[in-house]
Amino acid sequence: MPKVKCNDINVCxxxxxxxxxxxxxxxxxxxxxxxxxxxxxxxxxxxxTLIFDxxxxxxxxxxxxxxxxxxxxxxxxxxxxxxxxxxxxILGISMGGMIAQEFALTYPQRVEKLILCSTNCGASKSxxxxxxxxxxxxxxxxxxxxxxxxxxxxxxxxxxxVKGSPDYMKRVTEQLMKAPITQDxxxxxxxxxxxxxxxxxxPKIKAPTLVMxxxxxxxxxxENAKILADRIPGAKLAYFEKSAHALFSxxxxxxxxxxxxxxx
Length: 264
Hints:
- By secondary structure, the chain is an alpha/beta fold.
- The chain has a single domain, classed as Rossmann fold (3-Layer(aba) Sandwich).
- It has helices at about 35-45, 70-80, 95-105, 130-140, 145-155, 160-165, 165-175, 185-195, 225-230, 245-250, 250-264; strands spanning about 5, 10-15, 20-25, 50, 90-95, 110-115, 210-215, 235-240.
- Strands 1-2-4-3-5-6-7-8 form an 8-stranded mixed sheet, with helices on both faces.
- α2 (about 70-80) packs across α3 (about 95-105).
- The mean pLDDT is about 95.
């Protein structure tokens, strides 16, 4: 996979497809291997799809400095510069949705349409998960790769989906174990999230926006989607009844169709 210098780091990325650009931003601790390949292939039939590893994750550099959501957004902008992408649809999931909000506020002229998935507006006004879920998340990158995956899967998927999709979960396990984040970089990403808040700034987002959220999300409760949609002028809100935090996995066709209809 290619890398390119963006600000002070080398960012690992991949581009698939042709057409108008779609930039897809991953979440906390995750890297581009976490995207379902069949999903990327489907989207890339219509869009030039850019996926990449955020600062600290996967194969991108992880400098030992303080990170911020603004810094992640700036990294995204520089990556687009290097790939000669002046304007794009921007999609972010979880922490990636936070980065996408920051990008839309900092670089409004570079956003055609904005999609926010399984995310919130920051600590001050967001609805928090149950303490036991937060504790499970904060176990983060500690332990063996197998232990990390074991702790991560219940956060991303419903119990019924895990039990009923053994082949899919086998592939997910393999994906999650590729290029895992270090505990140090995980902690730096978490601190960036904790220091970030866009609640008062959301009305400034001018790009057409779609907020998508699973009703079974236990990590970022679904009430957060309505907060975002109410604060962003003209935003559309789509809930998915059977989906948890890994929004593109459990009602894939419905989620992808909703997304593509919005982007068309």
